[in-house]
């Protein structure tokens, strides 16, 4: 009797052994090992992962966290790509991390040959970004340029993918090339760039303020007395007049880290603006 039971058990085991594998193989095919080609995942995405409600993947799509494909980790391909919703395209700053990454990934805005020259952090030992996605995902996070006293934002647009002004990867020659056709004019004390350019029969070119908002450029046109300081204000880039109160650093040049504040109509009674006119 015991031999009969043993034989029956063995028969059942063999039966299950031949029936189960098809189900296992089907599961593995769907959610198991990723298909590789030359060591690269096919049909998979890197994404920003930590978003509570939204995610941006490395193709430039933004979607709700719940709609991400669990296998490929990609957003659905329908909808807008390289979206700059909630972004100030001039300053390259956004009020949403995920849309900042999406906007940054547009090849027309961020090119690989520029970002590979940028350090991830300030120390000399810091590494470089190895891909556009790494740059966008890292740069769009909160950084020291977007906060005041470590716990307050300079602006609602505190997710910025613009190249840092002190390590932009763009040479002085490249910056100068972006000013071709622009009449760079130093305004009078307390004068806005709108007023400065109008007096020359021209108009202020808003998107060129981003180019002038660099210490190297300001020091070419202004004395700056050897000092170039980060500041916050709609009147920048500018130079503080010599007779300004001492606490305002008379003679110093000022550039703004809050690039969303760059404005043609801003002015301050103790500064002279550097203006792009055309």
Automatic annotation (TrEMBL):
Q: Name one Pfam family in it.
A: SPRING1
Taxonomy, superkingdom = Eukaryota
Alphabetized UniProt keyword annotations: Glycoprotein, Golgi apparatus, Membrane, Signal, Transmembrane, Transmembrane helix
Kindly report the protein's main subcellular placement as a broad class: Golgi
State the InterPro entries in the record.
Answer: SPRING1
Q: Reply yes or no: does the keyword Acetylation apply.
A: no
Which region is the signal sequence? 1-26
Membrane-topology descriptor: Single-pass membrane protein
Example GO BP? positive regulation of SREBP signaling pathway
Q: Which cellular component terms (GO) are annotated to the entry?
A: Golgi membrane
Entry's localization field? Golgi apparatus membrane
Q: Which family does it belong to?
A: Belongs to the SPRING family.
Q: What is this protein called?
A: SREBP regulating gene protein
Source organism: Erythroxylum novogranatense
